[in-house]
Structure formats: structure tokens, C-alpha cells
Specification:
It comes from Falcunculus frontatus. Its main location: cytoplasm. It is found in: Cytoplasm, Cytoskeleton, Microtubule organizing center, Centrosome. The chain is an all-alpha fold. It has a domain of 139 residues: Alpha-Beta Horseshoe (Leucine-rich repeat, LRR (right-handed beta-alpha superhelix)). 83% of the residues lie in helices and 3% in strands. The chain is built from ten helices and five strands. Strands 1-2-3-4-5 form a five-stranded parallel β-sheet. The longest helix has 170 residues. The chain is rod-shaped.
Length: 597
């Protein structure tokens, strides 16, 4: 049923959230989910809690392949899915190529240390994941802290990118508005130029007398325009230098950031290696301590056995002493009995056997000799037993001394091992403290470098502000020059009006003179008869006047050509001014910033 449902959702474009919590999805369901993630482009949230996807390794690998190919899913819930470290590794491989997932919930699985490390390593390449839940996965605290730091870094990066994008949008809008304003100003300026050209075209027919003055005014304007061009070139060069400095500072800042990130990664790797070495050393020390304790136990067992042997030998000595006392008591009893027998025999045979006195004496001597021999044998046996006892006591003392020496050696070895372990631990702690001090010094140096870079950036920003103020001053200067140009144009218009008035007055005078000439002609027609003699001279004078008029007409044509040439030069100057204004607008800090962005 899930496969049919997901097959139908592959081509769907309206479903944004899909919740399949607690549906006992198996291998086929996981494969269908992977196909859905590869083909669907509309689902943004997917909940798969309580489905045990981690138990089906092949299906979960297909699901991870689909997640790797998907670039639209933003939230994924995989709680209580029995995902082990292998599944976490596949998820990490998928996250390295996924650029859309922002939230991933992996609580109450069985990821462990290896899975946590794999997810931590994938976060160095994934820059879009903002939230990762790993509670209830037996992941160590240091890995959780590193994951949180990586996620915080991703969130900071996303915030910085969004702020930069907003600033870019704002700056682009400002640039567009400035361009629109400049275009409007340029259109207005072009309209005014066209109007001025039309006014000039209308007024050129009547400005023959004031051409020299206009030419001088145009030369002054040309010199002013040249000075403005030089100033614009100088400002453009200064702006180019400031832009180059800002670009160099930005590259230095990026290089320092990359170096800081590389140093932080190296320190983190060294800390991990040190932690691993410390763990290995602790394991070796524990192993040595366990071996020393086992050896100590063996030595204690040997001492106990030797003490038992001593006790047994002491018991044997005690039994020997008891036997010796028993034998001596028996010998004494036998001697007493023998003496009693001798006395009884003496009493018995004293009266009756005086003859046997010598024999009895002999027998008594023999018995005394036998007793002496038995006493000698007993003394020798006692001496042998004493020698055996002394030898046993010496052996016992030697065994005790050997046991004491072995015990002392074992205790000395144990003390040496403990002292060596303490020294190694102290050395390791001192080494760690030294590394921590070096890391703090490197961190302080990095912070100082960052502060210096921030100061350099602040100085660059201050310089950019100064340059922007200088550019504003230049703009104001251009506006003042434009106002001067407008005032001069107005003066020219007023002068042209004056010229028009003067020309109209001259035309009125000429018309009056023409009327007077008509009256004179009538008078001449009336007096032609009288002036026939002077007509030839008058005709010659008229011919001279006509030549002069033709010369004046030629001069007028030449002046008109000069005026057209001046007009073309003014058009060229206007186009150059327009190009300079457009170059200034494009070379301003806002324009360069937007183009660089």
C-alpha cells in the first residue's frame, strides 16, 4: 500500500508535507521512499518515525541514495528507526551532496560513536543543515558539542548570507534608482540641450554681430569643461585606487578567515589525537597495573605457601620435640625400672647368691655400659635432631628472607610502576597544559589578527566613507558647475535676446532707411532727367555696393559655417559630458559595490 501511495506521489506537485509515522515500512517501502525523493520536487517535510528503517540495510541505502539526489526536502524526521552506525554513515554520505535539508531528527536510534563521527565529518561539507537532534544515541558529549558548533556555524553562515543578499538587493535597488534618476537627469539635460540647440538654430540667423563674443564665451566654457574632465579623471583614478585597496583588504580578510578555520581544524585534530593517545596510555597503565597486581597476588600466594610450609615444618619440629621428650621419659622410666629391678635382685640374691656377686657386678657393668651406649645414641640422635631443627630454622629464615626480599622487590616494583605512572600522568598533564596554553596563545593571536583585520576593515570603510564624501563633494561641484553652466546659458539667452532686440532695431532702422530710400528713389525718378550725367557714376557706385554686399554675404556664409562647426563641437562636448557623467555613475562606490557583488 505504501509503495502504491508513493508511486502516485512521485509526479505530484501540490503535497508539501508527508507523515508516515508508525506504518511498519520494510525494504520495498524504503526503496519506494528513495524513488519518491529522487523524482518528487514539491515535498518539503517528511515524517518517518517508528518505522524501523535501519533494520533493512539495502532499503535504507536506497533511501539514502534518494536523499542524496533530492534538493527540495527541508525537514526529515527519522526518530525510533533503529539506525546503527552503518546507516548513520550512509546518511552522512547523502548529506555531503544534499543542499536543501535544514532539519534532521535522529533521536532514539543506535548511532553510537562511529555514526556520530561520520555525521560530524559530513557537517564540514554540508552548509545548509541548521538543526540536528541526536539525543538517545549513545553519542559522546564532545561529538555532540562539535556537532552543535558546526550547526551554529551553518546558522551564522546562513544569517550572513541572508544579510549579504538583503544588502545586495538594497544596493541594487538603490543603484537602479540612481540610474533612473541619472537617466531622467540626462534626458532632461538632453531636452534642455535640444531646446537650446533649437533656440540657437533660430537665433543664429540674427547673431552675426555677436559671433566673436559667443566664440570667446564658448572658449571659456571649453576650458572649464577641460578642467572638469581632468578633475573627473583624477576622481576616477582615486576611486579606482580605493576600490583596489578595498578589494585587496577583502581578499586579505578572506585569506585570514581561511587560515583561522584551518588552524582551528588543526587544533581540533590535535586535541582528538591527544585524547586518543591519553586513552591509549591510560589503557596501557591500567594493563600494567593489572599485571603488577596479578604479580603481587602471585607473590602473596607464594608467601602464603612458604608460611604454610614453615608452619608444617614447625609442626614437624614440635612433633620431633614431643617424640624426644617421650623417648627421654621412656628411657628414664626404663632406668628407674632397671634400678628397681637391680635393687630387688640385689635383695634377692644378696643372701642367696653371694657367689654370683661378681657376675652381677659384671652384669651391672654391662648394663651400665649398655645404658651409657643407649644414652650416647640418644644424645647423638638428639644432636642430629637439633641439627635438623637448626637447618630447618635456617631454611625457614632463608625462605622468609627470600619472601621478604621478593615482597620488598614487588612492593618496590609496584611503587616504581605507580611513580612512573604518576610521572607519565604528570608529564601528560603538563604536555596537555602546554598544548592548551599554545592553543590559547594561538587563539589570542588569531583574535588579535581578527581585531587587526577588523581595524583594517574599519579603516578601509572610513577611507571609503571619505572617498564617498569626496565623491559627494565632486557631485556638488558638478552641480555647481551645472548651475554655472545654466546661469551662463541664461546669460547667453539674455544676450541673444539683446542681440535680437538690437537686430530688430537695426532692421527697423533699415526699413526706415528703406522707406527713405523709396522716397529718395521717387525723388530720383523725378530727378532722373536732372541726374543723367551722374547716373553712370551712381551705377558704378551701386556695382561697388553690390560687390560689397556679395562679400558680406560670403562672410555671412562663412560665419554660418563657423556657427555650425561650433554647434557640432558643442554637441560633441555634450556627448563627452554625458559619457563622463555615466562613467562617474558607474564608477561610484555604490556602482562598483553592486558590480562586484
Amino acid at each position: 500500500g505504501v509503495r502504491l501511495l508513493l508511486h502516485g506521489l512521485c509526479s505530484n506537485t501540490t503535497v508539501k508535507s508527508l507523515d508516515l509515522k508508525g506504518n511498519n515500512l520494510r525494504t520495498m517501502g524504503a526503496e519506494a521512499l528513495g524513488k519518491l525523493l529522487r523524482q518528487n520536487k514539491s515535498i518539503r517535510s517528511l515524517t518517518l518515525e517508528w518505522n524501523s528503517l535501519g533494520m533493512w540495510e539495502e532499503g535504507f541505502s536506497f533511501f539514502c541514495q534518494g536523499l542524496r539526489a533530492n534538493n527540495f526536502l527541508q525537514r526529515l524526521d527519522l526518530r525510533n528507526n533503529q539506525i546503527n552506525h552503518q546507516g548513520a554513515g550512509e546518511l552522512a554520505m547523502a548529506l555531503t551532496q544534499n543542499n536543501s535539508l535544514q532539519e534532521l531528527d535522529l533521536r532514539w536510534n543506535n548511532i553510537g560513536l562511529l555514526g556520530g563521527r561520520a555525521l560530524l565529518n559530513c557537517l564540514h561539507r554540508n552548509k545548509t543543515l541548521k538543526r540536528l537532534e541526536l539525543a538517545g544515541n549513545n553519542v559522546p558529549g564532545d561529538i555532540l558539542k562539535a556537532v552543535e558548533q558546526a550547526l551554529d556555524h551553518n546558522q551564522d553562515r546562513e544569517a550572513i548570507l541572508s544579510e549579504a543578499q538583503n544588502q545586495v538587493n538594497i544596493l541594487s535597488k538603490e543603484v537602479l534608482s540612481l540610474k533612473d534618476e541619472k537617466n531622467k537627469q540626462f534626458m532632461d539635460f538632453a531636452d534642455t540641450v535640444d531646446k537650446q540647440k533649437e533656440e540657437k538654430a533660430r537665433s543664429e540667423k540674427m547673431s552675426a554681430a555677436r559671433v566673436n563674443q559667443l566664440q570667446e564665451a564658448l572658449d571659456e566654457q571649453y576650458s572649464i569643461m577641460n578642467s572638469l574632465k581632468t578633475k573627473l579623471q583624477m576622481t576616477e583614478a582615486a576611486l579606482a585606487l580605493s576600490e583596489q585597496k578595498v578589494h585587496n583588504l577583502g581578499e586579505l580578510l578572506n585569506a585570514m578567515k581561511q587560515e583561522q578555520n584551518s588552524v582551528a581544524e588543526c587544533h581540533f585534530r590535535e586535541l582528538q589525537q591527544q585524547k586518543q593517545e591519553g586513552a591509549d596510555r591510560e589503557s596501557r597503565l591500567l594493563h600494567d597495573l593489572s599485571a603488577a597486581s596479578e604479580k603481587n597476588l602471585l607473590l602473596r600466594n607464594q608467601v602464603d605457601e612458604l608460611e604454610r610450609k614453615c608452619k608444617v615444618q614447625q609442626d614437624q619440629l614440635f612433633q620431633v620435640k614431643q617424640d624426644l621428650t617421650n623417648t627421654t621419659a621412656e628411657l628414664k622410666l626404663r632406668a628407674v625400672e632397671a634400678e628397681e629391678r637391680l635393687e630387688t635382685e640385689r635383695r634377692r640374691f644378696k643372701q642367696s647368691l653371694e657367689d654370683m656377686e661378681s657376675l652381677r657386678v659384671k652384669e651391672v657393668d654391662r648394663m651400665t655400659q649398655h645404658m651409657e651406649a643407649s644414652e650416647r645414641s640418644m644424645h647423638s640422635r638428639i644432636q642430629r635432631l637439633e641439627a635438623i631443627r637448626t637447618s630447618l630454622e635456617e631454611e625457614l629464615s632463608q625462605v622468609k628472607a627470600a619472601a621478604l626480599t621478593e615482597r620488598g622487590q614487588a612492593e618496590e616494583e609496584l611503587i616504581k610502576v605507580r611513580s612512573q605512572a604518576r610521572l607519565e600522568e604528570q608529564q601528560h598533564l603538563e604536555h596537555l597544559k602546554e598544548k592548551l596554553r599554545l592553543m590559547t596563545e594561538s587563539r589570542d593571536e588569531a583574535q588579535n589578527c581578527c581585531l587587526k583585520q577588523k581595524e583594517m576593515v574599519a579603516e578601509a570603510q572610513a577611507k571609503a566613507k571619505q572617498l564617498s564624501l569626496y565623491a559627494d563633494g565632486l557631485r556638488r561641484r558638478l552641480d555647481e558647475l551645472q548651475q554655472d553652466l545654466d546661469s551662463k546659458e541664461e546669460e547667453k539667452v539674455t544676450e541673444l535676446n539683446k542681440v535680437k532686440v538690437e537686430l530688430q532695431e537695426q532692421i527697423g532702422h533699415l526699413e526706415a532707411e528703406r522707406a527713405a530710400q523709396d522716397g529718395l528713389r521717387e525723388k530720383i525718378a523725378a530727378l532722373e532727367r536732372q541726374l543723367k550725367a551722374l547716373s553712370s557714376n551712381h551705377r558704378e557706385a551701386l556695382l561697388d555696393k553690390e560687390g560689397e554686399i556679395s562679400l558680406l554675404l560670403e562672410k555671412l556664409r562663412m560665419k554660418e559655417a563657423e556657427i555650425s562647426r561650433v554647434r557640432e563641437e558643442e554637441a560633441q562636448r555634450a556627448s563627452l559630458l554625458q559619457n563622463a557623467i555615466m562613467a562617474y555613475v558607474q564608477g561610484s562606490p555604490l556602482g562598483t559595490h553592486s558590480s562586484r557583488k
